[in-house]
């Protein structure tokens, strides 16, 4: 359903209602990302949360809605918001739509995970203790598999 074009009909804070009257009976699916190009060229990503009526969807904005007005064009992307994965994101700062905000460079999220992904199946889960490497030095330093007495509760520390 990519390249469906709609227009903003209502903005209430981060909630935006978009009409797709020109597309007939087709509406973007729930959790699909829509894109709005602002007057200054920046793109605002909004996500479909609800189908309202026959030609309207209710969305939530992933950034500020300041300056948006009725009649602004909205383009359906045909896919959900994706977050990049792998070693390329370790130590990087990303916003809620998977774009790098640390000034180092772009991050490719085309092969990433959708933010509304299905959870792993029960037989795919691991019960073994393992270190979770976050890529954030302070958290990786404090995270360990053995208990640290200074961080334990008073009831578990023996004198």
Please, could you describe this protein's structure?
It is a single chain. By secondary structure, the chain is mainly beta. The protein has a domain at 5-80: Beta Barrel (Thrombin, subunit H). It has one helix and eight strands, in the order ββββββββα. The chain has one helix spanning 137-142, and strands at 5-12, 15-19, 32-37, 43-52, 56-61, 73-80, 82-83, 113-114. A hairpin with a 2-residue loop joins strand 1 (5-12) and strand 2 (15-19). The longest helix has 6 residues, at 137-142. Residues 148-159 have low confidence and may be disordered.
Radius of gyration (Å): 21 Å
Count of runs of 4 or more consecutive helical residues: 1
Structural class of the helix and strand makeup?
mainly beta
Secondary-structure element series: EEEEEEEEH
Rounded mean pLDDT is: 83
Q: Which strand order do you get reading across the main beta sheet?
A: 1-2-5-4-3-6
What characterizes the major β-sheet? 6 strands, antiparallel, barrel
- Which parts are unreliable, with pLDDT below 50 for 5 consecutive residues or more? 148-159
Quick tags:
159 residues, mainly beta, Thrombin, subunit H, six-stranded antiparallel beta barrel, two-stranded antiparallel sheet, 1 helix, 4% helix, globular
